[in-house]
Amino acid sequence: MADLDDIRDGDNFGLNTPADTSAFYLKGMNSASWGIKNRMSRIFNRDSGRTVMLAFDHGFLMGPTSGLERIDLNIAPLAEEADCLMGCRGMIRTCIPAENTKPICLRTDSGTTILTEMNHNVLISEQDAIGMNVSAMAAMLAIGDADTEASTIANFSRLVDIGNKYSIPVMGVTAVGKDMTRDSRYFGLASRVCAENGASIVKTYYTEGFENVVAACPVPVVIAGGKKLPELEALELCYKAIQCGASGVDMGRNVFQSEAPLAMMKAVKAVVHNNATPAEAFDLFNTLKNEN
Ligand code: 5RP
Prior knowledge:
single chain, 292 residues, alpha/beta, TIM Barrel, 12 helices, 10 strands, Aldolase_TIM, fructose-bisphosphate aldolase activity, 3-hydroxy-5-phosphonooxypentane-2,4-dione thiolase
């Protein structure tokens, strides 16, 4: 039992001392297997060490939400600009051509929708992930949710066992517990739980103090975009996360619900891979938007 009356917040994150990446270009991977390193290399750009993942897994919870009505029409044309595609098996099989050579991060938990109690998820079969030749598997952890925290952590640990067996990296997706404050203390805890349980990648949300979240997480951190924002604000979010040490984004709504999704993908890539400022990336977005 944790000593709940004496939990001291960390305050020494060694922000000026980067993690050792001398043996492999991504942090936390020194002791990973060849197969995990190889798959991580497909996802994370070798030059920038970062990734722009395109998330379109939302439908398994919320159905054909805006921008995902027709994944064959909405997402497939964006695939070439993404470093990695993150979605569910049914939509990838039916809507993404098998000739696709972009790495796949497969959403590997399922079981609830927005119509009922969320987060009572189970894992799909690993045979599907292996058969689909995926580069990573993702599952959500509902940290702070009294009903589902334990089961989602157990799911996640099992998925890491499977991932280690077949050398497939596992990404922990931090869901937001309804009673938790969305601050760096919470996201730092949730991200760390993912890493402690063996995640090779952590997906979480940007917040003030994000540099501490990233520093305390020994593997690459990518951010979700969250609800649709005006394009400039979304680019500012990406920029701030990257400046705090994030290794990229796994972004959905702020791309596919944009008025110009392809232009937005390219603008996000400029921030993530080329350190473009939000203003520069927004200029790029406007230029490309008007060309389309
Ligand atoms: C919450 C998630 C979803 O998988 C989704 O990918 C979020 O993407 P965005 O917030 O950028 O639309 O992370 O389970």
